[in-house]
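User: Structure tokens for both sequences below?

Assistant:
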Amino acid sequence: IMSPDNSRVAYGWEDSSCQCTQLRVIDADGSGERVLYGGRGAAEIVPLEWSSDGQWILGTRNRNPDEAEVVLVSVPDGVLRVLSRPAHAFGRVSLSPDGHYVAYDRAEDFNGADRGIYVSETSADKETPVVTGPTLDSDPMWTPDGTGLVFSSLRTGGPGLWLQRIKDGRADGHPRLLDREMGPFAPVTLTKSGSLFYSQKTGLMDVYTASIDSATGEVVGEPAIAATHVQGSNINADWSPDGETLAFASWRTSRRNILVLHSMRTGLERELELEVVANGIRWSPDGRWITVGGPDRRGVRAIRLIDPESGNVATILPGAANAGAWDVDGQHVYLIRDLDRITRADVNTGKEEPLYRPPPDSILGSLSVSPDGRWLATQLYDRPAATSRLILVPTAGGKERDLLDLPGEPVAPTVGGWTRDGRRILFVRTHPDPEHKHQGELWAVPLEGGSPRRLGLNMRALRDVRVSPDGARISFTSGYPESDLWVFENFLP
């Protein structure tokens, strides 16, 4: 981050000599580098902005994986000042122009169902709620004169822009609506001249279904969009064990994540609003649970079980991981941890054991379990060699088996499932198109190895391929969550 006079830069630095992360400052001409904060065992500070006088750097520091705090670091001497009580998942943090107050949004309770906006004094350990209530209020930004906070809120239903006047660190009156419907937007910055720069989602992405030849995987006919209610924001589908329901995530706004249960027979849809991000949706073999692997509204990542009937969420395995794939026994899930190892976890006890670790400097991709439960298909990217392989990992443990070498692939392929008889593995090869976007093509390779073959499906950003239980259909995602940069001027009263 640049200092107000553009003469210095503050930045985070990972120092291998002490195995620590430091906060450093350097002059814009490359001279005068020095360490402000950091050392072995010190928690990382993420720098956010400088004070207007250039004497302090505002940042956040993680106390543990679940809690963080807002801090100020003195530029002259590195003295640290803690400004907030520990909280779950701070959002935007902003320092007032006079440097007397800091505003931020955070979860209002441990469950993280709602977010509120709070103000703390920089000279005292005193937090004051200024915008709270049963909704999502976020992204506070000080007005240029420091008399108010501009923020985004869902209190009118859609994403709106609001203003809360502030006097002596407290709310002065009620919030004022500035714009009722901003669309799916994310504030970037509010400038000193009062111009709001923000990004707005413009790209469309949808879940599709298509018929395939159950023996070869070859696509038959044209793909069709699955959703019947809301289109353009859907991603990451999986089939129920009976093939009657397709579950997928619908990203309506940056703060709302809907799990849609789409009936393939009637087209009717049931929606569950979740307190977690539905990444890596996978349906259990008995249909009782859906696993997801994203963070909750407090930013805490874990593998979670969702009851598709009630929408209730239970945490089974803490920590960041891909949701992976269910074992055919319905009691275990296979996970990719830190992109460099596969584990097998018991969903009832939470016990997790290692299954496979690839060679050093290799990155694992998605997982797909064979119909008989004997093999895990995944992709392996060798970073030094910049090459990709499709491999098979035995679920009983042991050495992997090479399935296909793909040297020179600009983007690592992704595994998409198996034909019903287990004799072929589907995967997606991706290449940049003339607009520098990713174009995905569906392929299949025999279980025993051999030449891969095209399956007749080529679409932009093709991904998340899943084969239906009867082997006659696939679901997949296509499209990008693209965004444009906008500026909103002359809106402040």
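Moving on to the next sequence.
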Amino acid sequence: MRRNSLYAKIVVTFAMLILAVLVVVTSFSYIRSERALEGMLENHGRMLLATTEAVAADRLALYDYVYLRTYVEELASKEPVLSFVAIENAGGEVVAHSDHVLEGKKAAVVSAPGSAPVAWKGTAVREREITYKGNRVLEISSPVTIAGKTWGTVQLGINYRDLDATLRRMAANILLVGLLILVLAVAGAHVFTGRVITDITRLLESARKISAGELREKVPERGVEEVRDLACAFNAMTENLRTVLARIQETGAGMGSFSSTFMTVIQEQAASASQQATSVAEVTATMEELSRTSRQIAQNAESVKEAASKSVEVSAH
């Protein structure tokens, strides 16, 4: 397959178009799916946060930190999406954490390196993306307030591990389906283009035969509409060429007959001219003979005249 052939250009162009469409659709689907999954994960985290906040409110007021430690440990073990659960008191000290090593430390120390501390305004839930133990985690926090008094803070770390794995599987499936669609599309383009090229090649062969003088060639009028129209135009052109050629042949035959008659007339005129030339030559010869005879008569007369003169002279003496 030549790179500059019509077949190659059509197939490559079609493949590039399908590939571009697949890239756009895949990217759009991936982004939409990612946002939808992240939204679902965030909503689930907010539900867990509200539940933990309700439990923490009662226990923080009673300073029952032992129960809170047991609760956060069980919650983290039951919910795979939780990387950690932490509860702080009003003084910013971590009183319960799913990782017990961090209990008793200040929240500023426990926070991920480089993460800005959470500043609360009212009771709004705050979110930020941090790195926890090398993984991407969404930290959502909410203050625990009782009768307008803040008793502490509840923090949940929602991990993206399952979400990222789901997205990777989805991307792989989309890529596989996209490649399958691309292969099928290229195969379809190959079949369709092959048929069109076959019809065009047939037209090309017929055109070559016509250019070589084979005007009896008739192009099959089949294929796509445009190719059929082109074949019909080729056949009409061939028919017109045959008609013109027939007229030329008729004109040539007429010209041959006219030439033959004209040559006959010329030959007859030439024969007549030859006869006239012969007659003129005979007349000329006769005239020359008469001229010679006249000159001779004149000479004889002159001789007689001289003889007569001499005779007179002799008589006189």
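User: Anything stand out in the second?

Assistant: Strands lie at 82-89, 94-97, 126-132, 135-146, 149-159.
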